[in-house]
Each structure stands twice: as structure tokens, then as C-alpha cells.
């Protein structure tokens, strides 16, 4: 091995590229080219790889602001803005709290019958697939009618499970009116930190809030009125 110490290396020919090569068993292997504008390209070897140092990386021009570094086989981007058109693969790791996906769920087993006690009136079954360690955020929209006796009130829940198999409530919400039969427009949210499976099911339940309400029921089976959206949350 010999060592060349110089301050500047440049092509012999004016306006030419400078090419750096490696050696493989006596054969030259093109690496990178520095063109006459000072730009670097890999036109001589389109399969060339840039390997990050284990304790270093790529930094901004100030030499102290890290942009890209590798540790333990994982690459970390910092101080970076991803522009429109940037695509991330499924192997990308997001910080906790990020929404990874959203699904407009298909509602099944919807009933517009009248009830007094806790009853599942629609569900979404296996509509989202999440990673084992992640959570699910649920948004449900509907309209419920309360038939007044001495009052008009509805008690709603979002629970894990199905219409035929209710689990404990993830969230509850109450709507009350002091006079007349009432239509309540409901927008409810629930958070499931430990889904029962990677394809969890959820159910919307209704019941009258007090015995002063005769019964309660969904006002319509329309997909425009009854909507459910599921979100996978990174933990």
C-alpha cells in the first residue's frame, strides 16, 4: 500500500470529470465521479453504495446539526422536512402518538328498532388491521331518537365486540332534553389502547338514560347518517 499526500487532485484534461476507482483482484472498479461543476455522481457504477460510519453520519454544513445517522442497523433522520411526493415504506418507524392509517369502516348489523336497555345497534367487524403493540382510535357518527315520557334522554357507548357479543364500554356519552321527543345528533370518540386482536371489532350501543324515557332508537339506516372511522395509533 502506498499513500499519496496532496492538497488538490484534478483531472489532467480541462473540463473533464475526476473519477475515483477501487480495485477488485487487479481490476478497476468505478466508484464516484466529480464532474466539471463539482457535482458528485455514480454514473460509472450505478450499484455503488454509501456506507455510513457507525458513530458518524451526514451533517449540515455547520458540522454539528445531524441529518442522517445509523445505529444498530436502524437509520435515523433528524432536522428533516419531508416534501410532497416522499414515500415511506412499512418498515419506517414513527414516533409514539402518530396516526399510521385510517379506515372508513363498513357498518353491519344495523337496527332501527326501539330499545330501553343496553343494546348493540350496529357494529364494524375486522375492518382494520393493526400491529400487535398499537392502539385504535374510533370515531362514530349517528342520530338517535328519544321517545319522551317525563324526559327524553339517550345513553350511548362505543365498545369492543359485536352486536351479538358486547364487551365493556371504551367510552360513553349522554344526551338529554327537558321537553318533547328529541332527535340527537351523536359524534362519539373512543380509544382502545389494547385491542383484542390485530383485526378488532367495535360496536355502538344505545339505551334510555332514565326510566322517564319510553325508548330510544336509531333514526335511519343511511350510510350518510351512520358512519364509523378507525385509526391506528403508534404506541
**Which spans have pLDDT < 50 for at least 5 consecutive residues?**
none
Instruction: Assess the beta-strand content as a share of residues.
Output: over 45%
The CATH topology of the largest domain, please?
Answer: Jelly Rolls
> What's the rounded overall pLDDT mean?
87
Q: Over all CA atoms, what is the radius of gyration?
A: 31 Å
Helix/strand/pairing class, anyone? Answer: mainly beta
Number of E-type strands: 15
CATH classification class of the largest domain: Mainly Beta
Spatial shape? rod-shaped
| Proper CATH architecture of the largest domain | Sandwich
- Distance linking N and C termini: 52 Å
Helix content: under 10%
SSE topology string: EEEEEEEEEEEEEEE
- Domain count: the total is 3
Summarize the structure.
With 235 residues, the protein is mainly β. Helices cover 0% and strands 47% of the residues. The protein has 3 domains: 50 residues, no CATH class; 41 residues, no CATH class; 132 residues, Sandwich (Jelly Rolls).
Characterise the protein shown here:
It contains no helices and 15 strands. It is mostly beta strands and 235 residues long. It folds into 3 domains: 1-50, no CATH class; 53-93, no CATH class; 102-233, Jelly Rolls (Sandwich), CATH 2.60.120. Strands 7, 9, 12, 14 and 15 form a 5-stranded antiparallel beta sheet that branches. Strand 4 (57-59) and strand 5 (66-71) form a beta hairpin. The chain is rod-shaped.
